[in-house]
Amino acid sequence: MGGDSLVVSTAAIANLTVPSTLPESDPLLSLVTSLTNPIQLSVKAVKPPKKGKAPSPELSIREGTVTVTQRNAILRSLCGTDLHAILDNAPFYMLGGHAVAAAQIPESSFIVASISSWMSVASTLTKDSVQKTLGDLESGPLSSQSFLIKGVGSPTLADFDMYFSLLKILNTHFDSPLKDMLSSTPNVHRWWTTVSKSIEYFNKLASPKSKVKLDSKDLETITSSYECTPVESPKFYFGEEGEDLPTFVAPTPAPSQATFQAKKQGGDAGGKGGELTEEQKKAAAEKRAKKKAEKAKKKPKGGGGGGGNAGGELDISALDIRVGKILKAWNHEEAEKLYCEEVDVGEETGPRKIASGLRPFYKLEEMQNRSVLVLCNLKARNLVGFPSHGMVMCASNSDHSQVEFVSAPEGAKIGERVSFESIEMKDPESENKMNKKKLFEKLAPDLKTDENGVIVWKGKKASVSSGECKAINGMANGHVA
């Protein structure tokens, strides 16, 4: 490894200083650095001193106004919006494809925060905890999803960081072959093979000029694994909901001699080659028609449930938006953008716990005793380990660089439901239906502030008994969520 800078460019929007031993000491940072566009990133590989500790990586961004020295933060910055999220687009998706949307969409913010949380877990692995970690991965996230982050279809920084951390400990402290250590954890085995192949592919895409690129020896050590045993593809039957599976799609065991004799005696009653007879096909069609008729009878007229009118059209009455008050707020211990809050929405069960990605926009003291509007009929979920039930609503501009609370006027009663002019406010939809049908996502594009900062949905103003609901600083033409 040389000691000269990789690329010297006045156009670079970030400058990174790393030790020349980076591929051996931190193969993930080495891989990410070598994938980064050299026009965007100037890299200086420094030889470590003969005596003493090698220099820690240091990233300078935003024209030198911000310096990042924490390794995990450097990785997320290189893959995120600081470098225009180039490594969060095809084919990389290092942040699950959610880097840009994280500032606007709660689900994306949650995914990016989850990646950060898993990276923290990877950094704390030890030889004493690695066996338990493998077991937790096997029975936990990898038992029901392909990768560590739910809802993401490719490996992210979280997967790569966990992989490299496990690999280092397993190779350093354990004598057993990798194959034997993973033989009892088939889900981890499958994940391990997929991640290692992704690393191998990405290394082929890395800049040939990079002085911190993984060489062939490094790569062979990193991606050495064993092949998965091929598994027969599952068979699916796309029939009517609730219909019994026809016998001809069920797996058939090898016929015994007794079975063969029975078939021979029974003739061709079941049809040749396992096919249905005309009578069986007719019976199946009649059964489907009967089930459709029963469903049509059960379906309520006018579209069923709240939030719909006589024609079944979805409207803003599906949402349960209520006046609330933040009683207490504190910083989330693991997610750098999240506040944790206790919010009173007038329920007998007491205040709700809600997590909000507002730390970039409000100081902690500004969160205390704040009057807010809360979307209450969202399903409870964990945000980086914090149980969140509801959403504190805010207005934001188009690029989400400005965010401000929306609230009811002074004198509004806590727990009072927000209504919209000329819209019949029926009972709100259930939390399960909101989640399953993605109702908020369908209604949100029309939920805005008008030129006077008043909340509107399709031009219909929001209000409570004491007056109109507005953005607290009068943000005009903002998006409300």
Please give a handful of descriptors for the protein shown.
5-stranded antiparallel sheet; 481 residues; 14 helices; alpha+beta; disordered N terminus
Q: Overview of this structure, please?
A:
The protein is an alpha+beta fold. Helix content is 31%, strand content 17%. It is built from 14 helices and 20 strands. The protein has a 5-stranded antiparallel β-sheet. Strands 14, 15, 16, 17 and 18 form a 5-stranded antiparallel β-sheet that branches. A 4-stranded mixed β-sheet has the order 2-1-3-4. Strand 3 and strand 4 form a beta hairpin. Helix 4 packs parallel to helix 6. The protein is globular and about 75 Å long. The chain starts with 13 loop residues before the first strand and ends with a strand. The N terminus is likely disordered.
Q: Can you summarize this structure?
A:
With 481 residues, the chain is of the alpha+beta class. It has 14 helices and 20 strands. The chain has a five-stranded antiparallel β-sheet. Strands 14, 15, 16, 17 and 18 form a five-stranded antiparallel β-sheet that branches.
